[in-house]
């Protein structure tokens, strides 16, 4: 009789630096602290550490936080998250690590997944971990970052960048999007959506969505595209034409397209494709529908069309995605390349 493999939650270590933003420090704990498997076991263990022995770390607010672990905790991490800080000193000003920070980072084991929120990306870049790789940060720091780290392929127009073992995000709320993306990649859409519901945030904002949307809060005196989006979500299984969406708002196609992009940050066509991919992911995880049936229900028409879109969006086929995230009806497989 074979023994069940020993369960161990994926260990996330959050590096708290002086001048940190309390909101961003709390994001990994809020998002990774929620997911559980079908037996109620936490899928992640979240630990916070400092570059110094346990003690207080200053924030950008009028209070400090007491950190219970020193830099040696980084050696135990499966994933390290570096939130933003407003007191990075030479890291921000010159692009070089302090001796204290360099010594702390040396504890990280090869192969550990790394993630940054907002200006936390400066730490990864100063350590030479982003040379020749894509990354992002808050749009307001983009030009300074480019001057400081010209060898990094910076894209300031996206919410987050997933480059496999290194992930970076824009500021504040984009850190939530990044952490939800990691949960989704590790354990599937159903688990990530449950975390999002409990956190009362949108379950999915694509990493390629624009950071800065021209009109993020629509003018109440002007028509919006909200009704059209709600209408489309109820009909994803049907062919949806741009003119049909525009008609829901009594707008011309040209006006609707412009207004939609201003509000959503993407074109109507891109938005529809993303919603259909999310519908397909949900159905592949939670139902026994055939791939052909999932394709029809999600509005792709054919299994081949859905396969192409999932391959583009996720890098896997529908069958491989289902195999990964439907182990034991509700218990996701361990994420590839991790130990948790």
Question: Care to describe what's here?
Answer:
The strands form 3 sheets. Strands 2-1-5-6-10-9 form a 6-stranded mixed sheet. The model is unreliable at 213-218 and 327-340 (pLDDT under 50). The protein has helices at residues 22-32, 90-93, 99-105, 121-126, 142-148, 173-187, 189-199, 226-233, 242-248, 253-264, 268-286, 291-298, 303-314, 318-325, and strands at residues 10-15, 44-49, 55-58, 64-67, 79-82, 113-117, 134-135, 153-154, 160-162, 166-169. The longest helix is centred in the C-terminal third of the chain and has 19 residues, at 268-286. It is globular. Helices cover 40% and strands 12% of the residues. By secondary structure, the chain is α/β, with parallel strands linked by helices. Helix 8 (226-233) crosses helix 9 and helix 11 packs antiparallel against helix 12. Strand 1, helix 1 and strand 2 (44-49) form a beta-alpha-beta unit.
Distance between the termini: 24 Å
Shape: globular
Give the fraction of residues assigned to helices.
25-40%
Q: Tell me about the largest β-sheet.
A: 6 strands, mixed
Please, what is the average pLDDT? 88
Rg of Cα set: 21 Å
Strands ordered across the widest β-sheet: 2-1-5-6-10-9
Number of strands: 10
Q: How many helices does DSSP assign?
A: 14
- Overall structural class, as computed from helix and strand content, comes to alpha/beta
Beta-strand share of residues: 5-15%
Which H/E pattern describes the elements? Answer: EHEEEEHHEHEHEEEHHHHHHHHH
Q: What low-confidence regions span 5 or more consecutive residues with pLDDT below 50?
A: 213-218, 327-340
């Amino acid at each position: 009789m074979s023994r069940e493999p020993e369960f161990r939650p994926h260990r996330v270590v959050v590096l708290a630096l002086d001048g940190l933003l309390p909101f961003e420090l709390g994001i990994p704990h809020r998002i990774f602290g929620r997911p559980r498997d079908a037996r109620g076991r936490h899928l992640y263990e979240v630990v916070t550490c400092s570059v110094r022995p346990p003690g207080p770390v200053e924030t950008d607010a009028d209070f400090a936080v007491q950190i219970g672990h020193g830099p040696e905790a980084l050696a135990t991490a499966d994933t390290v998250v570096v939130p933003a800080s407003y007191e990075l000193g030479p890291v921000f000003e010159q692009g070089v690590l302090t001796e204290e920070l360099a010594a702390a980072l040396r504890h990280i084991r090869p192969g550990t997944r790394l993630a940054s929120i907002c200006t936390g990306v400066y730490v990864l870049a100063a350590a030479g971990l982003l040379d020749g790789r894509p990354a992002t940060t808050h749009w307001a720091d983009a030009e300074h970052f480019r001057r400081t780290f010209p060898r990094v392929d910076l894209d300031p127009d996206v919410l987050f960048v997933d480059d496999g073992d290194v992930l970076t995000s824009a500021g504040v709320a984009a850190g939530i999007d990044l952490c939800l993306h990691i949960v989704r990649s590790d354990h599937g859409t159903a688990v990530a959506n449950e975390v999002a519901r409990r956190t009362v945030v949108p379950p999915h904002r694509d990493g390629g969505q624009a950071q800065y949307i021209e009109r993020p809060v629509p003018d109440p005196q002007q028509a919006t595209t909200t009704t059209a989006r709600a209408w489309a979500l109820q009909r994803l299984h049907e062919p949806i034409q741009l003119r049909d969406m525009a008609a829901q708002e009594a707008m011309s196609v040209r006006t609707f397209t412009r207004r939609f992009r201003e509000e959503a940050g993407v074109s109507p066509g891109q938005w529809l494709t993303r919603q259909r991919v999310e519908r397909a992911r949900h159905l592949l995880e939670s139902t026994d529908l055939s791939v052909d049936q999932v394709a029809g229900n999600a509005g792709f028409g054919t299994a081949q069309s859905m396969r192409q879109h999932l391959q583009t969006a996720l890098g896997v086929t529908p069958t491989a995605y289902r195999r990964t995230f439907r182990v034991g009806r509700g218990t996701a497989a361990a994420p590839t390349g991790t130990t948790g």
